[in-house]
Amino acid sequence: MHFIPPVEALKSQLDTLSDSAKKGFIRLSTSCQVNHLMGWLNAQSEYPRFYWQSREAGAVEYATLGAVKAFDSLAALQADLARLADLGGEQPDYFGGMAFDTSTVGWEHFPGCHFLLPRIELRRQQTGATLSLNLRFDDRCPEAEIVQARACLAALKEERPLPCLLPHVYQREDRPAQKEWAASVAQVTHPDHLSHTPKVVLSRETCLTTPETPSPWALLARWQAGAADCFHFGVQLTPHEAFIGCPPERLYTREGRHLMTEALAGTTRRGRDAQQDQALADELLADKKNSLENQCVYQQLLTQLEPLSSHVQMGEAHTVKLRSVQHIRRLIHAELHQNVTDQRLLAVLPPTPAVGGVPRESALAFIRQHERHRRGWYAGVLGRISHTSSDLSVAIRCAHIGPETIRLYAGAGIVAGSQPDEEWHELDAKIADIMSLLGMG
């Protein structure tokens, strides 16, 4: 049997697409062989580029190129989802994210909200890989759409090995410095402040400068290899900046009207061996300060979900073990009312108490007033949305990569009993993984 290369197979399907088929959304697909999706992404010349994999074992990997349509508001995204759902047929996946605080100035090339319907989609699952070309005919000239699709196919490059990550010398600056951090923690834990705002999540930006910036895709690939049980994402909207990460925390996953979210807050280190590790986990679950931090998160989630749901159920507290730290987690399941959309959920749930604080508005007011670095998409939302299902992470454990700079972010929930030095060391533990990837830890 004669083998047809995947790009040629898609071109052939496009050439033979009948006029009667040119309606609504169409996905043309062919099987393909790919060794490494990030090696494929790194070889391309098209933008934007997006990588996404959920944290479950064996989850589908997605790598996307280009954009059929892009949306800089949840309202516009939801309108497009509804429009295609009304037309029927196959429904697309949209990929993107939102900033932590859309009311403040963020990163230059990352809008407050940005989701896209990709032009090219490469998916890999356990049964194999599929290369797809996405087309829209409900709101545009069919001839122009075909021309744009052909141009994107013609620009596709063969997968290449990722460049090696060579050791670099980095200059490091923490913002805020430890002295300023201690002052902010003292303000948050003052009884007068605790009386109206029991939790504020303070963050730190660790800025690394280097004469040569490593490939974000090579960096993410190495990071991913040591970050099991985490989400994995990479976003490159322009050639100048990238945002990558391996966050452990889910915002929510939705299948139809069933939603699952979680309260992930409260942190301790990993042990030297299994016995010490379990002892630290038991101490974490019994610790009043960490239990309070987790309680602040789940109580707000329950309060937010109850008006949107016919049924909400929360599981028992347990620990999640990551490479350098372990956290307290409680799973929450909800059955959503018929009319509850992703737009409604994303207007209500983020920023979660695990990255903002409680009550939300007074915690955000403190962050806006006292944090001098820009969080941008750090602690925001990142993932995949479709009509039938959605899967979104909280964008922590991440790196913002620009020309000659890598900015790492970590946060700590400050509540009654928080000690500045302990919280500062927790931040160090949270960025230890990526620091070690850079040859600095």
UniProtKB/TrEMBL annotation:
<dbReference type="Pfam" id="PF00425">
    <property type="entry name" value="Chorismate_bind"/>
</dbReference>
<comment type="pathway">
    <text>Quinol/quinone metabolism; 1,4-dihydroxy-2-naphthoate biosynthesis; 1,4-dihydroxy-2-naphthoate from chorismate: step 1/7.</text>
</comment>
<dbReference type="InterPro" id="IPR004561">
    <property type="entry name" value="IsoChor_synthase"/>
</dbReference>
<feature type="active site" description="Proton donor">
    <location>
        <position position="249"/>
    </location>
</feature>
<protein>
    <recommendedName>
        <fullName>Isochorismate synthase MenF</fullName>
        <ecNumber>5.4.4.2</ecNumber>
    </recommendedName>
</protein>
<dbReference type="InterPro" id="IPR005801">
    <property type="entry name" value="ADC_synthase"/>
</dbReference>
<keyword id="KW-0479">Metal-binding</keyword>
<dbReference type="InterPro" id="IPR034681">
    <property type="entry name" value="MenF"/>
</dbReference>
<comment type="function">
    <text>Catalyzes the conversion of chorismate to isochorismate.</text>
</comment>
<keyword id="KW-0474">Menaquinone biosynthesis</keyword>
<dbReference type="GO" id="GO:0008909">
    <property type="term" value="F:isochorismate synthase activity"/>
</dbReference>
<feature type="binding site">
    <location>
        <position position="293"/>
    </location>
    <ligand>
        <name>Mg(2+)</name>
    </ligand>
</feature>
<feature type="domain" description="Chorismate-utilising enzyme C-terminal">
    <location>
        <begin position="178"/>
        <end position="430"/>
    </location>
</feature>
<feature type="active site" description="Proton acceptor">
    <location>
        <position position="199"/>
    </location>
</feature>
<dbReference type="InterPro" id="IPR015890">
    <property type="entry name" value="Chorismate_C"/>
</dbReference>
<keyword id="KW-0460">Magnesium</keyword>
<keyword id="KW-0413">Isomerase</keyword>
<comment type="pathway">
    <text>Quinol/quinone metabolism; menaquinone biosynthesis.</text>
</comment>
<feature type="binding site">
    <location>
        <position position="426"/>
    </location>
    <ligand>
        <name>Mg(2+)</name>
    </ligand>
</feature>
<comment type="similarity">
    <text>Belongs to the isochorismate synthase family.</text>
</comment>
